[in-house]
């Protein structure tokens, strides 16, 4: 049906490594895989195995859950996109404490797989969207810092020269041409 690989951390694992919850849901308990160091696993490669047929309008969605936190969507694979390397942005563990007997298993992080309607899922390229968002935030921060160095105050208003955007953009372009590494700093 499907398999996963944690780059530089595991050999390929098939569906048998997961606990099947029902016909369309599976869980991987990260405690059994890496113990409490689940947040050191930053990526997963998921792939459909050749003999698995997923309907065209369905996707195999990937979710992660830190202890005590809700599941977070990470991405999905489909027949059109049968494999993907997904970032695992583990959320901070939640504040919900689980009271268990002394011999009970501790609360652990999980990776969930779910067959879902493709139309109901967010964008399948979550990592790319996050990179674009980080890029936009860093460029905006760069502009703000540049403008702040030329600001004047008029009452409760900041006043900047009219050509400030042109000056910033020209400086930004020149620096990017001189130093190819400069723009890479904005990507992450």
UniProtKB/TrEMBL annotation:
<dbReference type="Pfam" id="PF05603">
    <property type="entry name" value="Hikeshi-like_N"/>
</dbReference>
<dbReference type="GO" id="GO:0006606">
    <property type="term" value="P:protein import into nucleus"/>
</dbReference>
<dbReference type="InterPro" id="IPR031318">
    <property type="entry name" value="OPI10"/>
</dbReference>
<comment type="similarity">
    <text>Belongs to the OPI10 family.</text>
</comment>
<dbReference type="Pfam" id="PF21057">
    <property type="entry name" value="Hikeshi-like_C"/>
</dbReference>
<dbReference type="InterPro" id="IPR008493">
    <property type="entry name" value="Hikeshi-like_N"/>
</dbReference>
<dbReference type="GO" id="GO:0005829">
    <property type="term" value="C:cytosol"/>
</dbReference>
<protein>
    <recommendedName>
        <fullName>Hikeshi-like domain-containing protein</fullName>
    </recommendedName>
</protein>
<dbReference type="InterPro" id="IPR048364">
    <property type="entry name" value="Hikeshi-like_C"/>
</dbReference>
<feature type="domain" description="Hikeshi-like N-terminal">
    <location>
        <begin position="17"/>
        <end position="121"/>
    </location>
</feature>
<dbReference type="GO" id="GO:0061608">
    <property type="term" value="F:nuclear import signal receptor activity"/>
</dbReference>
<dbReference type="GO" id="GO:0005634">
    <property type="term" value="C:nucleus"/>
</dbReference>
<feature type="domain" description="Hikeshi-like C-terminal">
    <location>
        <begin position="132"/>
        <end position="184"/>
    </location>
</feature>
